[in-house]
Amino acid sequence: MIVLYGRPLDNKNQLVSGPYKRAEAPNNCPEFPHMSGGVAFVTGSSQGIGKAIALRLASDGFEIAINDIDSKLLALETVKKEIEESTGKQALICVGDVSVEENVKAMIESVVKTFSSLDVMVANAGICPCGPLNDMSVEEWERAFTVNVIGTFLCYKYASLQMIAQGKGGRLIGASSNAGKQGQRMMGIYASTKFAIRGLTQSAALEYGKHQITVNAYCPGPIDTEMARKAAQDIGGDIEAVLNMYTQTAAVGRIGEPADVANLVSFLASKHSGYLTGQTISIDGGLIFD
Ligand SMILES: NC(=O)c1ccc[n+]([C@@H]2O[C@H](COP(=O)([O-])OP(=O)(O)OC[C@H]3O[C@@H](n4cnc5c(N)ncnc54)[C@H](O)[C@@H]3O)[C@@H](O)[C@H]2O)c1
């Protein structure tokens, strides 16, 4: 049996001899709309990393739909206003829970109804339960997997169905974590969900690649958001001490800002990333190397 890049070649996937035909540019680098009117949907974007991504993709030229749960409606309205003031374009608010299938379907339908397309899906929404494994309950495990993993799966599924129907490729982008590359004390459930997002991202990349849909995830280290501060408190009690510890450990001597992650997502969303798929890219100022 021949194995190439870890994939066995069976009868349906034989080595083909004969002249090699180079892919035409539209196939190997789809003319994906960037800075010229594509449509991006960012979940969990009332604050933190999701908000920074929505603002960045809006300034890159995308039409933007933003999402969060209903208790975050006021914050979503502020983000919508910021996008509209900075770009002069209307942003769409989609309130809903990414872990509820009907919500995800309905939100994607409303994005397409408003902007006639969906080109970039950023499955950013997530939660971060912390604590010693032996203090965690099955309910906490189920909630974290429901939001982080089922939520990402539903976003990939319904966005890709729309992108396949459109026939012009697309970008699916998920949120993993440093904790999705290396287990961490007091973050066992969270780390397990973020490892799962890597597996999902790799598998989705293999399935959707033939439609010119790329699938990647960002993998931040500590980024200064509400989630990171709450996690630092839950883990160490003293937020400042934990943040200082990360500052001293990171190669670049600081913890990240949401805009650092948005810079990476801007590239992943662009036409320039067409040959990059199935990857989970660390963005952590040099905390862990893989
Ligand atoms: N901040 C970090 O240090 C860090 C590090 C690694 C990975 N991440 C990941 O990046 C993503 C964003 O993190 P953040 O720091 O901005 O967190 P955050 O808590 O500041 O923001 C997350 C947002 O997601 C929303 N959300 C939660 N559950 C939802 C649901 N079911 N449906 C819709 N929205 C929901 C929240 O209401 C919140 O507004 C998360 O997936 C997180 O796990 C963050």
UniProtKB/TrEMBL annotation:
PROSITE patterns documented for this protein: ADH_SHORT (PS00061)
Entry GO MF terms: oxidoreductase activity, acting on the CH-OH group of donors, NAD or NADP as acceptor; quinone binding
Record carries keyword NADP: yes
A Pfam family reported for this protein in Swiss-Prot or TrEMBL: adh_short_C2
Entry keywords, A to Z: NADP
Lineage: Eukaryota, Fungi, Dikarya, Basidiomycota, Agaricomycotina
InterPro entries: NAD(P)-bd_dom_sf (IPR036291), Sc_DH/Rdtase_CS (IPR020904), SDR_fam (IPR002347)
Species: Lentinula raphanica
Annotated GO biological process: fatty acid biosynthetic process
Family as reported in the entry's similarity comment: Belongs to the short-chain dehydrogenases/reductases (SDR) family.
Name listed for the protein in its UniProt record: Short chain oxidoreductase
